[in-house]
Amino acid sequence: MAWTDPRLHSARSLLDLPVNEANRRVMAHREAFLGAGAAHEARPVIAASWARVRELGVAPAAERAPLVMSLENIDEILRTQQLGRSGRQVLDRFAPLAEGSRHVIVLADDRGRILYEVGHRGVYEGLEAMNFVPGGDWSEGAVGPNGIGTPLSLGRPEMVLGAEHYCEGWQPWVCYGAPVCDPETGRPLGAVDITGPSGAADIQTLALAISIAQSLEQQLELQTLQNRDHLRSEFREMERRWPGDALMLLSDGGRVLDINGVAVQMLELDRVVHAERPLATVLPDLWLLARDLVQTGRYGERRGEIRLENGMQPQLECRVQPVHHGQRKIGAVLILSGFHRLLSGTATRREPRAPARLVTLDDILGNSPSLAAAKRLCTLAAHDGGSVLLVGETGTGKEMFAQGIHSAGPKRTRPFIALNCGALPRELAASELFGYEPGSFTGADRKGRAGKFEVADGGTLFLDEVDSLDPDVQAKLLRVLEDMRVYRIGNHHGRAVDVRVIAAAGPRLAARLADGSFRLDLYHRLNVIDIHLPPLRDRPEDIALLAQHFLERECRRRGVPLPAIDPAVLSAFSAYHWPGNVRELANVCRRALLVAQGNRISDADLPELLKAHPVPAENMAAPARRSLRSISDDAIRAALEAADGNLTEAARRLGINRTTIYRRQQRWRC
Fold first, then answer.
1. Chain centroid to CA 144: how far?
2. Which of helix, strand or coil describes residue 416?
3. How far apart are CA 435 and CA 450, in angstroms?
């Protein structure tokens, strides 16, 4: 929304008058409206709002807005929803400005409910009396015209000055608001409002509210692009895992982002024509079939008849696999099957697709001793043939190592099947692993279905997050591992399989063994060979190599030249503790390339979390040819000096593990 928008002319004209005079005139207009029901002299936008809220029964004498949300619900939104997460970051950046100018800035959702506030504490205490606080309902229908509800109602920025507020309780204040729109759909997601004493009204504050809303929209757009990259990465992985299935990728809003070749053939769609279109307009029946699962982010199956563009009405089974990024649902993959052309009763023929290339151990980059030791164990495990248990933090590449073991072993030409046990609902875990017979449960395929053990017969089955399985499924898994016979649900006759199992778990495995939620006998059955994958913070010498690889890969994908990297970026990489490990580093590199200006990546292009671990100024000016190791050594030495040699305090300041500093000190003494 440009600041020169002519629709904002009335707000500028109102403040051409001295504020006290403008307020006096507005008060007279309001009294005339309340008395005679007409407000011919008031600004048209305000007169129309007064008329709407009087019809809704809003009380002119109201002094407090209703509280409609609990702090627990608000905290959940701020942690898990894009508007809340990004909005809090943007408002925090503007907090000093609001504090210095004696204003409060708030973020509200699309229903006008306040989620977050920053600004001058004294002003906030005055607003608190009228419930202008998180949880308050400031929709226009609840409290009349104001800087939240009115912009949401109009779909554009607006100012509400003093007596322009229909309710007397808010008349000491002036509000400047602007809607925040979804970059994907254009619909309002919420609003930003700046509120302060009406006597300090200034039209430039409305410009600031617009600027803050635009900053938030840019942040949301960047997050949407990152989500799209993550979704497509997950989609490519699913295409590799299930090359014969029809797959369709949807955004969180239900837009078609990608379709694989099997789905294109099955549904007779044009991948290019239908890109970025809502599924509701591409295949309305399919959207109705999957909508509730896509919108709620639940895994599940649906079956029904859909109508294609060619008029055919096939029966279709649709499985919905939600895709999450951290705690946030960002989209879903539809897995389609059971399709039959209603022509001569024959099923559609599918051309076989060549399986995608799996990762090898040589593809896993890094020269650190800890990584070399893990790869050496993987090579030994590949030729042994026994069960392998990979233990590592999230983002350390457990599936890559599993693929590497498979690729180096005698079953390399046989199937590699991966299953994320943590993503399976409890009621579906057993059927996914072991399969089921026709009619075994409500919603089951009438033909039955093979489980992952049968699909992987002769090859390797990778069970990620195996420690998340329920105890009853653990017992069934143990039975299969002991005699290598699979019993489908609803069938008491087992089928022999030849499957090499590679399992993976996170650091919480030890706690689950201790509290009994993961069976010790299953642990020992899986743990023939255990391999601990090192976190990225324990292999700092690999960070620069990995960052270079991720940037080169992303540049090739985008068709852009590789930018230069400022030394400050390497300093930040060295000081950061990388809780998300290699996956987080890849995402940071992708983001930096996306937001960088020109042909150089600077520390300004890094996320705020990485900027929270500063290093001394002399390191920031160091020449680019310095090694990442020497930069990190200097940062550790400076932190130790500042902490008077206290390892625990230095580790806390740097955000790294205490043992990392200890090992580095031992290396310095050599």
1. 35
2. strand
3. 4
Query: What is the residue-wise DSSP string for 336-367?
Result: EE----SSTTPPPP----PPPPPP-GGGS---
The first and second tokens of residue 5, run together, are 């928008």
Beta strands in 491-558 (DSSP E): 495-496, 500-505, 529-532
In this predicted structure, what is the pLDDT of residue 197? 93
Nearest to 503 by CA among 466, 474, 529: 466
Residues 225, 234 contacting (CB under 8 angstroms): no
Amino acid at the residue 195 = T
In angstroms, the CA 52 to CA 57 distance is 9
Chain centroid to Cα 424, Å, comes to 19
As a whole number of angstroms, the distance between CA 511 and CA 502 comes to 21
Instruction: In whole angstroms, give the CA distance from residue 43 to residue 34.
Output: 15
The reported pLDDT for the residue numbered 316 is 79
C-alpha closest to that of 647 among 631, 630, 667, 664? 664
Amino acid identity for residue 494 in this structure:
G
Looking at residue 163, its amino acid is A
Q: What is the dihedral of CA 209, 212, 216, 217, to 10 degrees?
A: 60
- Give Cβ neighbours of residue 145 (< 8 Å, ≥ 6 apart): 46, 49, 50, 53, 160, 164, 165, 166
Q: Give the torsion sign (CA, 382, 387, 393, 394).
A: positive
Tell how far CA 39 is from the center of its chain.
48
| Low-confidence stretches of the chain (pLDDT beneath 70) | 1-10, 12, 15, 37-40, 270-275, 309-313, 327, 338-357, 426-427, 439-446, 611-635, 638, 648-670
Give the angle subtended at the CA of 175 by the CAs of 170 and 180, to the nearest 5°.
130
| Residues paired with residue 224 on neighbouring β-strands, in sequence order | none
- Asked if 92 and 118 touch (Cβ cutoff 8 Å), the reply is yes
- What pLDDT does residue 628 have? 38
Scan for tokens 């939104």, then name that residue.
77
**Cα three-residue angle 115-117-122, rounded to 5 degrees:** 145
DSSP code string of 626-662: S-HHHHHHHHHHHHHHHTTT-HHHHHHHHTS-HHHHH
Residue in the structure block whose two tokens are 């099997």: 262
State the first-to-last Cα distance of the chain, in angstroms, to the nearest integer: 62
What predicted TM-score, i.e. pTM, was given to this entire model? Answer: 0.51
Q: What is the pLDDT of residue 279?
A: 87
Residues 296-308, buried b or exposed e (16+ Cβ, 10 A)?
ebebbbbeeebeb
Q: How far apart are CA 242 and CA 355, in angstroms?
A: 9
What are 78's two structure tokens? Answer: 């701020």
